[in-house]
């Protein structure tokens, strides 16, 4: 059984999470659950990026002098949000933690020892929103194209990292490993960037002082130089190493590194696909297996972002519609990798059409009919004697194939689409076989319903990583709820694994009640 280490970006905590951050983390959660179901030893990491001047300024704006207290409070609010959303991260790293600082210091020394750090003067345009120096192509009307704010002019003495030295090796790696950067379109952008614009990068900032007001006031000091702090991106990327024990727990580090999947937004792909590999190569470490860049959540076509003030709080959405509704919406509505617009009207129409009427009704109809026919009839029915069995078992196998490919290739939208097509074919089977017609022999009707109950078991399994609460409710209705740890793919995919002899069917509460009488 292999391991699977997947990460989200670590988030700045200058505000509470918005639905764009929830998007990244929810999809990562679904993939983590999927790999657990595959039987892998999963480590799903998320966390908070705390050594940023953005966070310090946010504290100041709120009139809080104690930056550390502010960070503690905000970081807890982020973790609480993920808990409320039912996310299953195995670890949550804060870059103010000791385990992180120790690893960062070690890394700096290793890279320094490799001869890849040198001193120099830096003069350039710095965007606080991006926490990065910009080049002319990053500007629109003299403002940062993402944050729509003018960058600051900065001139400082800094330490530089010899990133450009690794350009050719990174290009060669990307070319030899088509899966390294996904989707393909992004891979080409990164290659272009490496070929055109990748140069050595400043990796420290001067501390703020009376003489220098442009520097930083918070961060990890550069080992051996009291006047400089480590640049926040250089520090932040290292969370992926320090969380698995780099510099503190070699055994754990060997167990989990390299990461199998970094999920990032397209805005921060360059840091992950160019700077990060250069850092790892310099330190003599393996590169991650895959970096997947997803698109933006937009509001009327503009990126949802704290600095633009057009945000939706995920807690408001799940408070009203439930966790699985938000999960379904983000995975159904937006092909992973593309941009997608968020809107309550769209979410509500998905809810009614796909969840309440699609999934909810099919489950309810099958369970109600099975319940009416009664357990003893169901138990004596020989389901293999019915023509629907062959058709549905074949359909189930084909649906699993599409589903598995979607989940393995970070295309949960494909997996969701496969599942919903399956549901509509179950509905069509009901319509065709009409097991409610009293004129048909009860054994026939019970046979069809046994087959459909077995199909529902597959629905529950496929829903498990995507919509865990819904999956649990279906398993419970089938009388089959067991501990999460026992769920494995081999067991899930087997046709006819439903033990009719011991099944206890219950209708349960509606999975997705009508919105007006909403009870989720
Ligand atoms: N702290 C850095 C990341 C360091 S990782 C070593 C950072 N933080 S962030 O909070 O500004 O954004 C992190 C990520 O949040 C983005 O890359 C993206 O994954 C997600 N998103 C932020 N806004 C988003 C949308 N509007 N839509 C989709 N994802 C969004 O950058």
What features would you describe in this structure?
With 520 residues, the protein is α/β, with parallel strands linked by helices. The chain contains 19 helices and 18 strands. Helix 12 (323-333) crosses helix 16 (412-433) and helix 13 (344-373) packs across helix 16. 5'-O-[(L-methionyl)-sulphamoyl]adenosine binds at residues 9-12, 20-21, 23-24, 49, 236-237, 239, 264-265, 267-268, 296-297, 303-305. 5'-O-[(L-methionyl)-sulphamoyl]adenosine binds next to strand 1, helix 1, helix 7 and strand 14.
Describe this protein with a few key phrases:
520 residues; alpha/beta; six-stranded parallel beta sheet; four-stranded antiparallel beta sheet; 16% strand; elongated; binds 5'-O-[(L-methionyl)-sulphamoyl]adenosine
